[in-house]
Amino acid sequence: MTQTEVRNYPRKVMTEGGEIEFRHMTPADEAAVLAFARKLPVHDLLFLPRNISEPKVMSAWAKELDRGTIVSLLALKDGQVVGCGTIVRDALSWSPHVGEIRMVISQDVRGLGVGRALSNETFALALVIGLEKLVVQMTVDQTGAIAIFEGLGFKGEALLRDHVRDMDGTTHDIVVLGHNVAQFRAQMEAYGLPEAVST
Ligand SMILES: CC(C)(COP(=O)(O)OP(=O)(O)OC[C@H]1O[C@@H](n2cnc3c(N)ncnc32)[C@H](O)[C@@H]1OP(=O)(O)O)[C@@H](O)C(=O)NCCC(=O)NCCS
Questions:
Q1: Which of 4, 42, 65, 161 has its CA 20 to 30 A from that of 140?
Q2: What CATH number belongs to 3-198?
Q3: DSSP SS3 for 108
Q4: Which sign does the torsion angle of CA 121, 111, 26, 176 carry?
Q5: Residue 1: its pLDDT value, please?
Q6: Contact assessment for residue 76 and residue 21, using Cβ atoms and an 8 Å cutoff
Q7: pLDDT (average), residues 184-197
């Protein structure tokens, strides 16, 4: 079963920043997402293993989308990419049941609820594709991101000191939050709610 069969897109939500459309990213979105990434401050990309403002990294990402190892949702406002939420998993690793959520929102729509809406949507998609555990990581100063994911039930699992180095050579700590979504899904099923996330 593909992700698009279990949850329908596009979906629209109203936020303080106006109407936002969510849909799957495809390799055809490569140029638009690169332009979006290049407008982001470099510090906001430090939680990612690779610098997505580099064209070769974006091309590799597009190939992973094709292979299905990465699922990315775009948030669009008036047809422009204003956010991206990604679920990364590795079916051949010892953690095929674990997915990592990565999310970034354009600076010009921050603080307007777009990040919260996209995290809700990405979380719902991760649930319906059957992942059992989710993790997120971010620099410790991303208080908005930590607030969003703690609100979804994630809890701190690790602090990686001096784990990333920015272009000035300054190191930053990374916090890892985790969520046992298998347990969460079981609770939803007990309440008779699985349909709420699957359509
Ligand atoms: C984290 C991020 C996605 C939030 O996006 P956003 O659209 O600004 O988020 P929202 O407007 O939905 O705000 C979400 C919550 O965070 C809070 N928040 C937002 N920015 C904040 C800040 N700078 N400091 C403290 N809290 C903040 C908001 O008050 C809101 O909480 P509330 O709904 O209880 O009021 C965005 O800041 C971003 O792209 N950061 C860089 C990338 C990153 O670190 N991603 C996290 C890795 S998964």
A1: 65
A2: 3.40.630.30
A3: helix
A4: negative
A5: 44
A6: yes
A7: 74
Compute CA 65 distance to the chain's CA centroid, rounded to the nearest angstrom. Answer: 14
Question: Distance from the CA of 90 to the center of ligand 1, in angstroms?
Answer: 27
* Ligand 1 interacting residues, C-beta cut-off 6 A: 44, 47, 101-105, 110-116, 136, 138, 142-145, 147-148
Is 173 in a helix, a strand, or coil? strand
DSSP assignment, residue 49? S
Q: What residues contact residue 148 under an 8 Å CB cut-off, 6+ apart?
A: 115, 116, 119
Output the CA torsion sign for 39, 40, 46, 50: negative
Q: Where are the domains of the chain?
A: 3-198
Q: What is the DSSP letter of 195?
A: H
**Which residue is closest in CA terms to ligand 1's atom 18?**
144
For the CA of 114, the closest atom of ligand 1 is 7
- This prediction's pTM: 0.91
176-188 per-residue burial string, b: 16 or more CB within 10 A, e: under 16: bbbbebeebbeeb
- For residue 199, the model assigns a pLDDT of 55
Select the more confidently predicted residue: 7 or 107: 107
Partners of residue 102 on adjacent β-strands? 86
State pLDDT tens for residues 148-165.
999 999 999 999 999 999
